[in-house]
Design brief:
Elements: H1 9-13, H2 15-33, E1 46-50, H3 59-72, E2 77-81, E3 93-95, H4 101-104, H5 106-115, E4 119-121, H6 125-136, E5 140-144, E6 156-162, H7 182-185, E7 191-195, E8 204-210, E9 212-215, E10 221-223, E11 229-234, H8 239-248, E12 252-258, E13 280-283, H9 284-287, E14 298-301, E15 303-307, H10 309-320
Parallel strand pairs: 1-5, 1-6, 2-4, 2-5, 6-7, 7-8, 11-12, 11-13, 13-14
Antiparallel strand pairs: 3-4, 8-15, 9-10, 9-14
Length: 325
C-alpha cells in the first residue's frame, strides 16, 4: 500500500481499525506469554527470522546466510516456511530444489536450491518441524518469517528492518504496514538487522550484494559488469531496491517492470517486456517461477547477505550456544 509510506488522509480514516488491531495483537501475545493459550516447544532450537512490517524486508537472504554459516560449522539445519504464494493444499510438505514453486511458494524453493538444506512448508509450523525432525533430525530449525506466530516457542528472534523504508508511517495495520509496534517489540528480540539504508544505533547493518548473472536456460554465469543495457523485472516486496541494485552496478535499465510480491509469472506476462536482442534480468526469487518458459536472453541475479564478520560471528555464536552437538 503506497499510502503506508507517505502522508495520506486514508491512514487517519483507518486509524480506529489500527487501534483495534493493536489491542487484539497485545492481548494475543499476552495470552501466549501467560499460558492462557498453549504454545509448543520443538525438539531442537528454533531461530525465527521475521519482521514487524508487511512486505519483503530481506529475510530470505539472511536465512540463506545463516544456513550456510551453520552448515560450514557442521550443523544440520532445517528450514520451515509458511509457503506463502503457493497453491499446495497437502500439508506439511517437504520442498526440494526441483519442487514446483506454483505449489510451494517461491522462497522455499529458492532456499532449497541455494543451501540444499531440508525445507518444510505448512501454515502449521509445528507440523513442519515434526516432519523435518522425523525425516532429517536437524540440530536447529530456522523459520523464514513467523515472528508473530507465538504458538511456536523460539530460542532466538532476529528482526529484519528495511533500512530505506523503515516502518513507513509508523502505524499498525490497516492504517500502516506494521504488525507490532517497534517501540515495544524490538527491545525484546535478540538482534535487529538493518537491510540497506543507514543502520540505527544497536542495529546490525546488512547489504544485499550481487556478483553475477546466471542464465535461466544454460546456467552460464556472467559478471554483471559485462552487461550494459538491460530490461529488468521484479516481483518482490520492494522492486525499486532490485532496480537500484542493477543501476549501482553500472547497468542502464531500458525498462523496469514491477510486479506484486510472490507474483505467479506466466509466459504471457513477458510478451510486451521481452526483446530477444536485449538481456532481461530478474531476481532469483522470480527466476524459480520462470524456468519452464525462459528464453535464452533471460538472466537472474542472485544476491548474498553481507554482514560485517564480527557482527555475523555474534549472530552465529548466539545460535550455536543453543545447539546441542
Amino acid at each position: 500500500m503506497k499510502f503506508w509510506y507517505q502522508q495520506s488522509w486514508l491512514q487517519w480514516l483507518l486509524l480506529p481499525f489500527a487501534w483495534l488491531f493493536q489491542l487484539i495483537t497485545y492481548l494475543r501475545r499476552k495470552a501466549y506469554q501467560t499460558g492462557i493459550f498453549a504454545s509448543w516447544r520443538a525438539p531442537c532450537p528454533v531461530v525465527v527470522v521475521g519482521n514487524l512490517s508487511v512486505g519483503g524486508n530481506g529475510k530470505t537472504p539472511l536465512v540463506v546466510c545463516l544456513v550456510e554459516q551453520l552448515q560450514a560449522r557442521g550443523i544440520k539445519v532445517g528450514v520451515i516456511s509458511r509457503g506463502y504464494g503457493g497453491e499446495n493444499t497437502d500439508y506439511p510438505f517437504l520442498v526440494c530444489a526441483t519442487s514446483d514453486p506454483k505449489k510451494t511458494g517461491d522462497e522455499p524453493v529458492l532456499i532449497a536450491k541455494r543451501t540444499a538444506a531440508p525445507v518444510a512448508i505448512s501454515p502449521n509450523r509445528q507440523e513442519s518441524i515434526e516432519l523435518l525432525y522425523k525425516a532429517y533430525h536437524p540440530q536447529v530449525i530456522i523459520s523464514d518469517d513467523g515472528l508473530q506466530h507465538y504458538k511456536l516457542q523460539r530460542d532466538v528472534e532476529l528482526v529484519v528492518v528495511d533500512g530505506e523504508r523503515r516502518f513507513g508511517n509508523g502505524l499498525l495495520l490497516p492504517a500502516g504496514p506494521l504488525r507490532e509496534r517497534p517501540q515495544q517489540r524490538l527491545p525484546t528480540v535478540d538482534a535487529v538487522i538493518c537491510n540497506g539504508g543507514i543502520a540505527h544505533e544497536g542495529e546490525i547493518a546488512m547489504t544485499l550484494a550481487p556478483d553475477v548473472a546466471i542464465n535461466l536456460v544454460t546456467g552460464e554465469q556472467r559478471p554483471l559488469n559485462q552487461f550494459s543495457t538491460v530490461n529488468a523485472v521484479a516481483g518482490i516486496g520492494h522492486p525499486p531496491r532490485f532496480f537500484a541494485t542493477l543501476q549501482q552496478q553500472g547497468l542502464t535499465l531500458l525498462t523496469q517492470h514491477a510486479f506484486a510480491d510472490h507474483y505467479a509469472f506466466q509466459a504471457d506476462d513477458f510478451a510486451k517486456i521481452d526483446n530477444a536482442e536485449i538481456p532481461l534480468l530478474m531476481t532469483e526469487k522470480d527466476a524459480v517461477k520462470c524456468t519452464e518458459f525462459a528464453k535464452d536472453n533471460w538472466w537472474y541475479v542472485p544476491v548474498s547477505a553481507q554482514i560485517a564478520p564480527t557482527q555475523l560471528a555474534v549472530l552465529i555464536d548466539k545460535i550455536m550456544s543453543k545447539v546441542t552437538q
